[in-house]
Amino acid sequence: MQLISTIAELRTQLANQRAIAFVPTMGNLHEGHLDLMRQAREHGSCVVASIFVNPLQFGPSEDFDRYPRTLDADCASLQGLVDVVFAPAVNEMYPAQQTVFIEPPPVANELCGAARPGHFRGMATVVLKLLNIVQPQVALFGKKDYQQLHIIRQMVAQLNLPIRIIGGETVRAADGLALSSRNQYLNGAERAEAAFLNRTLQTMKSAILQGERDFERLQEQAVEALAARGWRVDYVAVRSQSDLRAASGSQRELVILAAARLGDTRLLDNAEVCLAG
User: From the candidates 33, 43, 119, 150, which is the catalytic residue?
Assistant: First the structure.
């Protein structure tokens, strides 16, 4: 495994590769990331992982400065799973002030985009830069960040990038909590409570599978249940999987999306719902 920190060296290393599978990350890797790396090996003879904490996707009051940076431990975890780790410095990715940005679709202003203005613009911009640098045939992203995955798929399709985007299933702890680098911000009591977010979504999913179609009521009930236990809820929403628009009772492929805070930690989760046709 090679650790590379410059774009020029990476391009030289990858120049003759014709089957690259790429997994972009912000580091502080957990089993969810490693599962994506294993899947990547099924899709490419050369697996590249990037580790880059992207300042463009953090708001001024968010956790860019304290986001955990664990490059040595990450590289140890990636031994035997990937061929190349690309870990550029900020001034390598942004040698001058970035004045050209990707403008994501309108859905980027909803859900997480409503709570984090500009987040998806910064995310899409760095993902496009990374795709242009690595030039993979396949790129893998986790489904836990469901809205992010949707926006990346739209960007790749509409900009005619010759890259197949694969969404990896969410990896969970034994109690159902979706694995996330930010879970380590939780204290003991918060960690014990954190699994309630997934339980709430599973309750909603069961109700929909049993015939409930009043999605507004389900959303309100979920928000109330979370708030009663001390969560600060950004949103709970039932959307169409295909375009993330508000779901209607006639749609068969739905996704329940949620973001809520425990203390200072913002947690994301989702649950796909596929109804019999």
Answer: 33
CATH topology of domain 181-271: Pantoate--beta-alanine Ligase; Chain: A,domain 2 (3.30.1300)
Interval 105-127 mean pLDDT: 97
Which regions of the chain carry the CATH code 3.30.1300.10? 181-271
Measured between alpha carbons, how far is 178 from 189 in angstroms, rounded to an integer?
A: 17
Residue 33 falls in the annotated catalytic set: yes
Q: What is the reported pTM?
A: 0.96
For tokens 């928000």, name the residue. 223
What are 73-92's pLDDT values in tens digits? 999 999 999 999 999 999 99
Label residue 218 left, alpha or beta by phi (over 0 means left) and psi (-120 to 50 means alpha).
Answer: alpha
Q: Can you tell me the distance from the alpha carbon of 34 to that of 243, in angstroms, rounded to the nearest whole number?
A: 28
- Superfamily classification of domain 2-168: HUPs (3.40.50.620)
C-alpha distance from residue 72 to each of 4, 51, 67, 92 (Å): 13, 11, 15, 19
Compute and round to an integer the Cα radius of gyration of the chain. 19
